[in-house]
């Protein structure tokens, strides 16, 4: 038995050295990202603060795709959002994404940003969900949560958002109306690290496995996409 354990240990070490295993360091969103207003709002939260499953908790990971540091990359298939860092690293967040028929993919930019945004349901959402108000004021019970990043292509608002959620139990699932949801703590952290104009690459289904795909998409899009 001890011999078997030793062999397994050597095998694991070899895999790590060969780059077959990603280094993952789980880290909660830093408290420093929270403003006094954030703490006051989160203290009033009436939703159940469900712990996110470990695979979808905020983590520092190795990153081998070719997007530039500062870019946001959304891997809807695996329910991850990456904020690309220098030195082959990324901050990885777990997300909720849209159902297949409602999902967004493509290259966009952050065209607007808002803290504790109000929610104005689109005409399409009103058709699918009856009885919604014309708008919902910002706050912890608002479906957009603590922050919203509005995705634009050119000067056109795509109507898709990266935003917070008052349903953390769905992080890691595909149930939203196409928008990309994060826990309120994670979206506050992301918001504090990006700026208007940040490039957002939302990968097509099954695109996340190839490090070449997003580079070709960026090259093919030219400047007109932004």
UniProtKB/TrEMBL annotation:
GO terms for biological process: cell wall organization; peptidoglycan-protein cross-linking; regulation of cell shape. Pathway: Cell wall biogenesis; peptidoglycan biosynthesis. This is L,D-transpeptidase. It comes from the Bacteria. It holds the Pfam family YkuD. GO terms for cellular component: extracellular region. Residues 209-226 have a biased composition (Polar residues). InterPro entries: LD-transpeptidase, LD_TPept_cat_dom, Transpep_catalytic_dom. Residues 70-203 form the L,D-TPase catalytic domain. The active site is at 163 (proton donor/acceptor), 179 (nucleophile). It comes from Bradyrhizobium sediminis. Belongs to the YkuD family. GO terms for molecular function: glycosyltransferase activity; peptidoglycan L,D-transpeptidase activity. PANTHER family: L,D-TRANSPEPTIDASE, L,D-TRANSPEPTIDASE ERFK_SRFK-RELATED. Residues 205-226 are annotated as: Disordered. Keywords: Cell shape, Cell wall biogenesis/degradation, Glycosyltransferase, Hydrolase, Peptidoglycan synthesis, Signal, Transferase. Residues 1-23 form the signal peptide.
